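Example record

Each entry pairs one chain with its bound ligand, adenosine-5'-diphosphate.
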Amino acid sequence: RHGRRDARRARLRGRQQARDDHISYVDSLPSGQEKGLFYALDLGGTNFRVLRVQLGGKEGRVVKQECDEISIPAHLMTGTSQELFDFIAAALAKFVASEGEDFHLLEGRQRELGFTFSFPVKQSSIASGTLIKWTKGFSIDETVGADVVAELSSALDRQGLDMKVTALVNDTIGTLAGGRYDDNDVVAAVILGTGTNAAYVERANAIPKWHGLLPKSGDMVINMEWGNFRSSHLPLTEFDQALDAESLNPGEQIYEKLISGMYLGEIVRRVLLKMTEEASLFGDDIPPKLKIPFILRTPHMSMMHHDTSPDLRTVGAKLKDVLGIQGTSLKTRRLVVDVCDIVAKRGARLAAAGIHGVLKKLGRDIPGSDKHRTVIAMDGGLYEHYTIFSETLENTLREMLGEEVSSSVVIKLANDGSGIGAALLAAAHSQYL
Ligand code: ADP
Ligand code: MG
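Structure tokens for the complex follow.
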């Protein structure tokens, strides 16, 4: 009887957990033995990056690497699938053409690529997966449900580029792989950039969704898709609700809309607009530009927030340049900084709560007898550049973990670790192994 009850409980638990986390098909993180020339392509936000790396095995490690960053024209983010992938393939072909003498492809081999695609994907093997939905301002209906590796491979063919995609990963998985290659104590990866997501290493036998053979390592990397987290315990203001309702993906990515770089500036704009409408913050007329969605970007917000000049000169300049608002009083500029402070700190504290949740799941939130380090590989422009945000996040995490535990927890900025990570996973899943 107990058995049956336990099974029912497990089923219920499984149902409650029917969230958005995905098995990555990555069951081994880089060993350090990886050797040869590999490429990576990172698509996941405003820019995409291409990278090549010559790996020299245990001794040589990363012998040489080169990368290039290309921004995606806005019209391609909502155009056709073929246009988007052709643009990417063309840029990649150009990059491959510039490969120098320091890079060596073994005779008779095809170039291999790790594809970092940072949108929700239903993975069906290490090198295939269908797009569940676009996020972060992308919206191309025909790609939804399509295998993104097939889409990319056809575009590579159209460019006449002989290259095989051997690994499809998310930026979190790439960051985790790159982070682990660099530091053995990395247990999780978090992205705080245009969007947000996290991944961690789980024991495969603790995964209810896993029905296949247990991987040799016993580990499986979980892509949490935590940007899509929502809960009645996650209070939403009228500004959050309106932002969501008017977004390209209403009802989705609620946590992401509270904490990531794509949205923080937009929340501030909405608050300032209401303060103008109801309390004439910027005088009697409503500045027309303040009504334009997404005109106030998070980097603008960050610059205003970090303004240390006594007369808040940068705040004045940003209000003028970005929103066309002139001649603000110091008192008004202070209010603007306060709004930035509230929005940024709320986001940072919520992000810290997410990291705390992962550490809790891993049992790394309690003082252990074995004093191991716990390292979180972090990537993303928001965390990297928005100092008040990253400091608030770290302070909050310390607050939640307590001094003792937090002294062994490290957040490590893995700058573009996901690129190297994807190349390493391409190597680990090479067709020539
Ligand atoms: P992506 O997430 O698109 O892969 P990044 O990790 O480089 O790219 O993050 C870019 C995002 O980081 C931007 O969309 C922006 O929201 C945020 N960001 C970049 N620079 C700053 C800055 N100076 N201050 C605050 N946020 C920034
Ligand atoms: Mg990125």
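The two ends are 48 Å apart (CA to CA).
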